Amino acid sequence: MNLIPLPAFSDNYIWLLHHNGRALVVDPGDAQPVLDALASAGWVLDVILVTHHHPDHVGGVAALTAATSATVYGPAHEKMPPGVIPLTQGETLSWQGLEFEVIDVPGHTAGHIAYFGQPSDMAPVLFCGDTLFSGGCGRLFEGTPDQMLNSLEKLAGLPGATQVCCAHEYTLSNLKFARHIEPANLDLSAYESRCQDLRAQGLPTLPSHLDLELKINPFLRSRQPSVRASVQHRTPTPMDDADYFAALRQWKNDYR
Ligand code: ZN
Ligand code: FE
Fold first, then answer.
1. Helices 241-254 and 171-181 meet at what angle, rounded to 10?
2. What pLDDT, in 10s, does the model give residues 106-131?
3. Is residue 123 part of a domain?
4. 175 Cα to the center of ligand 2, angstroms
5. For residue 79, what is the domain's CATH number?
């Protein structure tokens, strides 16, 4: 089984898995990059997975279902295009012998889901849409900080080798903010220079890995003393776990 990010729009990735001439894609906001990839490799599209309702994730679904006989799965608690099979926490689907487990991750949107699978021939894969980014997390459009914190902690409990397949190339700007929060984090500065090299060559920084994200991503580290000290410095009031997370997310929104 092979995993490829197809660039779309200015900074989206449509993740594609292929095996034995068959393909699965995640969050096709645009059909064209998928149709081009299928045509040039001769793959048949079996499955489309959707994480949430935003147009940059579902915009290509109608054109792909018109052009192929793909089955589409998406979140049960969000408005989806017609024909999408609804899924929620704990439900599974199978493709090419690979079982995906659905994880509810509200926060960016109210019904956002993620898909986790463990292929027999490569590291586990997590399709997390706009919930977890490398070095960051999605904006809270519909959910609360408490929900997003819980969602991220569910993802943080997956195996460390998990390949984190985020839907956007936001890594460098996230890492700039992360370094502002944790200037003494050496894993972070080393990772940032690796990512700068990749982007200078026009390459994706993704997939990331969960064990790395746990070392560098301030939104997975909001309980760490170093992160808390930075937040307290800016917002010096007594705070609980969700308050720290909320203050960190607000800081990122304001950060330029
Ligand atoms: Zn989104
Ligand atoms: Fe998005």
1. 120
2. 999 999 999 999 999 999 999 999 99
3. yes
4. 18
5. 3.60.15.10
